[in-house]
Design goal:
homodimer; 335 residues; alpha/beta; Isopropylmalate Dehydrogenase; eleven-stranded mixed β-sheet; 11 strands; 47% helix
Amino acid sequence: MKIALDAMGGDTAPETAIAGAIRAARELPVEVVLVGQQAAIEQHLASYAKRPANLSIVHAAEVIGMDESPVASVRKKRDSSINVGVELLKERKVDAFVSAGNTGAVVSASTLLVGLLPGIERPGIATLLPGVTKDTLLIDVGANIDPKPLHLLQYALMGEAYMRCVLGRVRPTVGLLNVGEEETKGTEFMKETYGLIEASGVNFVGNVEGHDIFTGEFDVIVCDGFAGNVALKTAESLAHAISVLLKRSLAMSPITRLGAWLAHDAFLNLRKEIDYAEHGGAPLLGVDGISIIAHGASGGKAIKNAIRVAYESVRHELNPNMVEAIRLSSQRVPP
Amino acid sequence: MKIALDAMGGDTAPETAIAGAIRAARELPVEVVLVGQQAAIEQHLASYAKRPANLSIVHAAEVIGMDESPVASVRKKRDSSINVGVELLKERKVDAFVSAGNTGAVVSASTLLVGLLPGIERPGIATLLPGVTKDTLLIDVGANIDPKPLHLLQYALMGEAYMRCVLGRVRPTVGLLNVGEEETKGTEFMKETYGLIEASGVNFVGNVEGHDIFTGEFDVIVCDGFAGNVALKTAESLAHAISVLLKRSLAMSPITRLGAWLAHDAFLNLRKEIDYAEHGGAPLLGVDGISIIAHGASGGKAIKNAIRVAYESVRHELNPNMVEAIRLSSQRVPP
């Protein structure tokens, strides 16, 4: 299996991308194809004592910046690492593409160049969030900020297929993110979406709320990309704020500082449990090829885990399974 | 100053409502008017050694349940504690109304019975959230889940007036919650809203994202009630999840348990910093009278703080100040 990695994507590229690629090449039965500026990649690779044999380079001269306009940059920078990597995916020269670069550009390139799976109208970014009892998949967290109810139905079906096929969840539950639990809650848009998902054949539990996201009670929570993006970034912001405030509180006296020192392992363990790096990248579901979006601030471990998510998605034949789920459902609910 | 408290509202009413009323009556220069079933209130009051003189009761025979349909229950239960309390506000027999009951019912009763301030089209629920450096006001968190751009403009103006007049912030900054910082980000709805707020005269800093909510960098963040509700409940869910996971981690070994015991004061301090109970109730801005919504799970301290928010809002003449802000802005941007 070959997995292309955008070597130029992420806040600290190419350094951390390469660190992640090396870890993935050592730990996973895949060939990692680094896509980006060859000279820069070679230079960073030279700092490693031994370069794994299952690591190769495909040159791409341009780089799309983290803040560039997605659609325009993908159209203009044909030789960017994102475009070249996605082209490899399109030509089936690799089995998956992973990038910690400009999220919008990855979504645009994947959609425009590779295209969507049969029956899918819009791709959605699915993110696995840590919960008290188990992880929950939130879809969409920003690919599609003005969706139609049909798009949310398709997110429900694709998210369900992901949790079932890739994570091995048995009959995953699917909830619809709303402002109240009753079927009659929310906008007309939400009520229509509710009806579509209810009739789709997935294990639909109805409306859920923001306070259900981190309980682990549900396998999949479906939302529009605007609300999902707000929820995800709010959660990141709060986790950071709690971490800062906790450190400040722990420094308040010699006793609490001693306590913090003794409890060090517990804090490390907590960080591990809630760290996005442990959960890997976010699959862009619906694209006719496996495309994984990693966090821009990903370190080497997060990049490696994003490559692992790509590997698992290919190995468990995610896309054929999603197509089948959409096909079966469309026999129940004609689009 | 007289403040009516819905004695029957909240998950543990009337017990905690009464506990909060007693604390408020002792600590604040106000008369607290308990509204609800007189016999039940008297029974709970009897357990207190000394009943403050500045505490009175107005009987209301009915109770609106936490899960009842808001509009229908307000129409049907004319003698509910929410209706009776809001009627007192309407008739200017009290200066403010506070409830930890059914949020939708408080919004409906306040809007239908008391009406809105001149020039205001929709009320919005404003919640003060703890941040790393200072608190941020998020408006709207659920009163209006399908708003028009004009409503969001009015939330910006009302939120700014609240932070300026009640919290004493100098020239408060106002951000618009979106999925990216550039002016061109988001839906057409967001772009139109951006233009309106930019022209309004408030200290507009442009688009902000979910990750800006808990930094304390901004004074006011404006959003539609759907996204705001999701953000608020997601944050509550994550804070709870982190608390559970932290406790679990701290119990992992005798050393970490000892550390946790020594660091106890630090955890108490953190809890105090992020606890909603410290921040009091959420003002329903835009109503022609001060109406404060407390969290359903409020304890006595949270109820007392919600009454304090009501007291400060009346004392600082919030509503006349908001009307003036709307008037001045409408001279700049005709609605």
